[in-house]
Every structure is written in structure tokens, then in C-alpha cells.
Design a protein that fits this description.
Layout lengths: L5 H16 L1 H13 L4 H8 L5 H15 L2 H4 L5
Helix pairs in contact: 1-2
């Protein structure tokens, strides 16, 4: 995996937020994170606590499938 710069990570993150939430809600999300004390590590550890790895994987594949066509997913390549 190629490591990307902090600037590239910020740009990709912002692009994803805007595409998922729209510009106004993406800005609102960023403001909420900036305004409140937020421990990402603690939040991430409890985010999927009641879900199996299989359920998380299926959810991720469904979300990915909703945004990409099967050719973009390269399903037949494996």
C-alpha cells in the first residue's frame, strides 16, 4: 500500500464527506467534531461492538455496492 500525505488524506476525507452528506452537512459534521471533545479511538471501538465480523463485512460490501457498479468492484477478477 502506498502511503499518502496528510494533505491528500484531508482532501479525500473531505471529498467523501461532501459526496455522502452534501457540502452543508459535511461542514456541519466537521464543526461538530471540532466543537465537542471527541475520542475517535473510543468511538471506533464501540461502533460495531454488537456486530460480527461477517455482518460488518456484508454491510460494507452493500454500501460499497450501492455506490459502485459491479465492473468497478472488479468482482470477476478473483
Amino acid at each position: 500500500m502506498i502511503q499518502i500525505t496528510d494533505t491528500e488524506i484531508k482532501q479525500k476525507g473531505l471529498d467523501i464527506l461532501v459526496s455522502a452528506l452534501g457540502a452543508v452537512d459535511a461542514e456541519r459534521f466537521i464543526t461538530l467534531l471540532s466543537r465537542e471533545p471527541f475520542n475517535y479511538t473510543r468511538w471506533q471501538r464501540t461502533l460495531f461492538i454488537d456486530m460480527s465480523v461477517e455482518a460488518i463485512s456484508q454491510r460494507a460490501m452493500k454500501l460499497r455496492g450501492d455506490s459502485l457498479s459491479s465492473s468497478e468492484l472488479d468482482i470477476d477478477a478473483h
